[in-house]
Amino acid sequence: MIQVNAMGDACPIPVVKTKNAIKEMNGAGVVETLVDNEIAVQNLTKMANQKGYGVKSEKLGENEYKVTMTIGDAAVEEIEAEEPVVCAVPAKGKNVVVVISTAQMGSGNDELGTTLMKGFIYALGQQEVLPKTILFYIGGATIPCEGSVSLEDLKSMEAQGVEILTCGTCLNFYGLSEKLAVGSVTNMYVIAEKMTQADLIVKP
Amino acid sequence: MARLRKPAIVLSFTKTTDAMAVEKYCMAHNLPGRLIPIPREITAGCGLAWKAAPEDEELLVSSLKEDGLPWSGLYHMEL
After folding, report:
1. Does the beta carbon of A177 lie under 8 angstroms from any beta carbon of chain B?
2. Integer Cα distance of A62 and A57 in angstroms
3. Would you say the ipTM is above 0.85?
4. Which one of A123, B22, B24, B67 has the lowest number of neighbouring Cβ atoms within 10 Å?
5. What dotted CATH number matches A2-80?
6. A16-45 pLDDT tens trace
7. Tell me, what's the pLDDT at A84?
8. Which of A54, A111, A128 lies nearest to residue B6, judging by beta carbons?
9. Range(s) within chain A of domains with CATH label 3.30.110.40
10. Which fold is adopted by the domain A96-202?
């Protein structure tokens, strides 16, 4: 495995460095690239998808992301065909805010509702355009916490630039303040601000 | 933003309750995979599916068979 340090590098340097590392490897293998911004994560992911490499990204900390590419044998020849690196800017689409205020999607049957909510969060992460922000409060506040089955989906969305915010009052009320496992704690001012400034609020 | 796709196996079900039973069973037995809404590539209908890594196919299928948990189809796809 090769590790590429592209911390502090602006587009297109992280992509160029990663491409060079793949070339150097000259065969199948894994390349890990460390970057400090979401745009770089998006550009690397796009490059990997174009080339047919396996790719996953992970947020390691504030301004620290790891993009892991798995290069198969078949993919290597293609790298010769060089194409210019496009420096993407964040999608200038609508400001979509997803508000999750219950652990269940809909009402009528809690078991089914919990299953549907898990499915909704998974499907949300599969959309071509991800929301800008996801807000969790009251019954929804358990979803971004330790032990939740949706953590993997939420972490993947966060690594792709989705802001995940959970109501601190709610975490405190449930005794979950130490259990938040993705995103950050927020307060009612921010919740009100995010909702009033949204172009579209999605509430499953 | 393009989606990240990885090879996976997907089990489909004829009944929602069958899918939920498999989830319960797999969690209780520490079996790999997760419940997802059934991919559009398989059916346009509403439903749930069990998604797992391709390498877990044998373990999963033999465990479900042994304990008599039904499913309707098994698909290999990139998800």
Report:
1. no
2. 14
3. no
4. B67
5. 3.30.110.40
6. 889 889 888 888 899 999 999 888 888 888
7. 63
8. A54
9. 2-80
10. Hypothetical Protein Ychn; Chain: A, (3.40.1260)
